[in-house]
Amino acid sequence: MRNIIFFSLFMTITTGCGCRSCQGGGAGIGYLLDDQDRKILKEVSPETSAKMQKGEPLTVQDVIWLHNSGLSEETIVRYIRDTKTSYLLNQLQIRKLQTAGVSQRVISYMIDTGRYTPV
Questions:
Q1: Distance separating alpha carbons of residues 119 and 100, to the nearest angstrom
Q2: What's the N-to-C CA distance of the chain in angstroms?
Q3: Residues 6+ apart with CB under 8 A from 80
Q4: Domain assignments of the chain as residue spans, ordered by start
Q5: Considering the entire predicted model, what is its pTM?
Q6: For residue 65, which of 86, 95, 41 has the smallest C-alpha distance?
Q7: How many C-beta atoms lie closer than 10 Å to residue 105's C-beta?
Q8: Residue range 53-87, pLDDT digits in tens
Q9: How far, in Å, CA of 58 to CA of 112, rounded?
Q10: What is the spatial distance between Cα 51 and Cα 64, in angstroms, rounded to a whole number?
């Protein structure tokens, strides 16, 4: 298996689809983060912050940055759930998450998303 993460994104939030082609659309994650979280996230990773504001899928590295910025595991899991992101993680990616200190709950949730995705 290659070191590729497959994503599928379907927005269920009615304020916008979150796709790149929608100028100014997208629901973002404003309801998940308070002002302090947003400020910290923009400082740690402006790219990840921008992805989240557009409702785009997160990479493994994005999840690590979110963890390192101090966002709760509940917030990370909720974002992955709300964006219906699906991950097919390999052992190297799982070890990278574990080494970075990402909680087992987040890692397990990410693994589980790949189990229920149609091929």
A1: 30
A2: 15
A3: 58, 109, 110, 113
A4: 1-119
A5: 0.69
A6: 41
A7: 12
A8: 888 999 999 999 999 988 889 989 999 999 999 99
A9: 15
A10: 14
